[in-house]
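Archive transcription. Copying these from loose printouts into the bound notebook so they stop getting lost. Printout 1 of 2:
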Amino acid sequence: MSARLTRRQAEALELVAQGLTDRQIAERLIISPRTASSHVADAMTALDAATRAHAVYLYFVVHRQAEGQADTLKKSSI
């Protein structure tokens, strides 16, 4: 998976992981509920996730782990 999420998509998924609804995400990020919903939906599409829970799993377990490995490779090549 090579999906890159925007900063807002990642922030929205982090809040989904805390159990927040789109309305609560909107309040935290100071955006409209529709925009919050769009960020979550776009992240799900980018990660090819079927559900919010699946998106959270893919983001935290797969996507961020892959980013960490890439950072490790960059540091070891310096």
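Printout 2 of 2:
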Amino acid sequence: MEQLEGHQGKVEDNLKGLLSQRDVLYHEFRTVGVQSDPERKDRVKQEISALTGQIQKLRREVALCQDIAHRSGKMRER
């Protein structure tokens, strides 16, 4: 159980970092400099998409960890 909690904590920390990076890119995407440069705009969009894919995977992993912890608690009660 401790290993699961440790792993979940690492995944959540990684998730927070990726969310912060994506927020920075969202703000950058909205700037005039990016909007006026099509190549830069496309690059930022691609980076946002890549981070979003990673974030989705990590969110699924956190949900799985929570599910495992919940089911483990039920098994201990029996």
